[in-house]
Design a protein that fits this description.
IPNS-like_FE2OG_OXY, iron, Jelly Rolls, alpha+beta, four-stranded antiparallel β-sheet, Iron_ascorbate_oxido_reductase, binds 2-oxoglutaric acid, about 350 residues, about 25% helix, 8 helices, binds fe (ii) ion, metal ion binding
C-alpha cells in the first residue's frame, strides 16, 4: 500500500476479504482504517447479496421519482416523520456550512432503526408494501457493521465484543440511520458553487456505502496532502459481459466502508474519519443514486478511550482526549452537536 504521505491525487483503496478464513483480515483492515479511513469489503458471505442492493436501488428510484405530494407526506419537517427521519428535499442539508454558498444538490430519505420488528415512522406510499424488505436490508447492514467492528476489536487486541456490545440494538436506541440518496443531474452547474454533497466526515462509528452497479461516480476523499481523489464505483473493474461457462457473470460489487468521527475519537485518532464529498463528475453526467447505512453506537455509550495498547500509544502521540469540560460525552451528545450544525429544517 502506498503510504498516505505520498499521495498524488490517485488513491488505491484496498479491497479486503473479512471472512474468518482470512486470518490476515484484522491487520489489513486496521492498516486501511489508519491510512485512508476508507476500505472496500469483498461481498462474499457478508449476508448482503447483490440482488438485495439492486432491489433497494429500484425502490429508491421509484420513491424519488414520485410526485412531490407523495414525498411531502413523509417530509422530515412534518410532525409525522419524527426527528431526523423522513424525506429531505433539496435545500435542507448543507454538509459543509462554512464553505458552501448553496445547499447540497440532493434529496434523501432517512429511515431510523426498526424497533420490535417495525419501523418507527411512516413510509411513503411507494415504499409501504416493501417495509419488510427495508427492515431486512437494515438488519443485514447492521450485521455486517458488527462483523467489521468485531474485526477491528481483534486488530486492536481488545475483547472481541468491546465495540459490538456498544452497538447491540437489543440494549437500547442508537442514532443508526439508513439513508437513500438521490443526486439529480442539473442543467447548469456553477463551477465551485454547486456540489452534490459538501465536504464532511461521517458522524457515527462506521458507514456502509452502496453505489450502483453501472451507476455514476462522484465520491471523492480528501487525501492527507489536501487533494481530492476519486473513489471508484467498482474498484475491481469487473469486465462487463464476461462469461463463466456460458453464463454471463453478474459480479457483486464490493461494499465501501468508511470510518466515522466516533470511531476516530474512540481510538484517539488511530482510525481515520476521512473528509469526503460528492461532486458532479465532468466525464459522467446523469443522476446519481447511493445508499448509506450510518452505524452509530448506542445513545448512552460513553466515548471513553478504547482499552487497547495500540490506542494508548496513539493517544500519547496525538494528545487527543475524549472529555468535554472534564466530562466524558455520550454518543448522543456528539450526534446532536453535529446535526445542529448541518441541517436547516424549517
Ligand atoms: O453518496 C455518496 O456517495 C456519499 C454520501 C455521503 O457521504 C453521506 O451521505 O454521508
Ligand atoms: Fe458521508
Amino acid at each position: 500500500m502506498v503510504s498516505p504521505e505520498h499521495f498524488t491525487g490517485e488513491v488505491q483503496i484496498p479491497v479486503i476479504d473479512i471472512r474468518p478464513t482470512n486470518s490476515d483480515a484484522p491487520r489489513q483492515l486496521l492498516q486501511a482504517a489508519a491510512g485512508y479511513g476508507f476500505v472496500f469489503i469483498e461481498p462474499w458471505e457478508t449476508g448482503i447479496k447483490q440482488e438485495d442492493v439492486d432491489q433497494m436501488f429500484e425502490l429508491s428510484k421509484e420513491f424519488f421519482a414520485s410526485p412531490i405530494d407523495v414525498k411531502e407526506e413523509v417530509s422530515i419537517s412534518s410532525n409525522k416523520a419524527g426527528k431526523n427521519y423522513g424525506w429531505l428535499s433539496q435545500g435542507v442539508e448543507k454538509l459543509d456550512p462554512m464553505t458552501q454558498k448553496r445547499p447540497d444538490v440532493k434529496e434523501a430519505f432517512n429511515v431510523g432503526e426498526p424497533v420490535g420488528g417495525e419501523l418507527q415512522q411512516p413510509l411513503p406510499k411507494p415504499l409501504r408494501p416493501h417495509e419488510q424488505t427495508i427492515i431486512d436490508f437494515q438488519r443485514k447492514c447492521h450485521r455486517l457493521c458488527q462483523r467489521v467492528l468485531q474485526v477491528f476489536a481483534i486488530a486492536l487486541g481488545i475483547n472481541e465484543r468491546w465495540f459490538t456490545d456498544r452497538h447491540d440494538e437489543a440494549r437500547g436506541p442508537s442514532g443508526t440511520m439508513f439513508r437513500l440518496l438521490y443526486y439529480p443531474q442539473i442543467d447548469t452547474i456553477e463551477d465551485g458553487v454547486d456540489i452534490r454533497a459538501g465536504a464532511h466526515s461521517d458522524y457515527g462509528s462506521i458507514t456502509l456505502l452502496f453505489q450502483q452497479r453501472g451507476g455514476h461516480p462522484g465520491l471523492e476523499i480528501k487525501t492527507p496532502s489536501g487533494e481530492w481523489a476519486p473513489v471508484p464505483v467498482d474498484p475491481v473493474q469487473h469486465p462487463v459481459g464476461s462469461f463463466n461457462g456460458g453464463i454471463p457473470k453478474e459480479q457483486p460489487l464490493p461494499i465501501l466502508v468508511n470510518i466515522g468521527d466516533l470511531l476516530e475519537d474512540w481510538t484517539a485518532g488511530l482510525l481515520k474519519s476521512t473528509v469526503h464529498r460528492v461532486i458532479f463528475p465532468e466525464a459522467s453526467g446523469g443522476d446519481r443514486y447511493s445508499i448509506a447505512y450510518f452505524c452509530h453506537p448506542l445513545d448512552d455509550a460513553l466515548l471513553e478511550p478504547v482499552p487497547s495498547k495500540l490506542v494508548e500509544d496513539h493517544a500519547l502521540k496525538s494528545g487527543r482526549k475524549l472529555a468535554r469540560d472534564g466530562k466524558l460525552i455520550t454518543a448522543k451528545d456528539h450526534l446532536m452537536a453535529r446535526l445542529a450544525a448541518t441541517y436547516t429544517v424549517k
